[in-house]
Amino acid sequence: MSEVGFTTALLRWFAQYGRELPWRGIGDAYGIWVSEVILQQTRIDQGRDYWYRFMERFPTVEALAGASEDEVLRLWQGLGYYSRARNMHAAARQIVEQGGFPRTIEGLRALKGVGDYTAAAVGSMAFGLPAAAVDGNVYRVLARHYGIDVPINTTRGKHTFEALAQQLLPEAEAGTFNQALMDFGATWCTPRSPRCADCPVALTCEALRTGRIEQLPVKEKKLQVKERRLCYIYVRHEGMTALRRRPAGDIWQGLWEPLLVEDAPLPDLGCPLTLLASGVKHVLTHRILLADFYLAEPTERPALPPGYVWIKEREIGDYALPRLVEKLLESLSR
Question: What is this structure's pTM?
Answer without folding.
Answer: 0.76
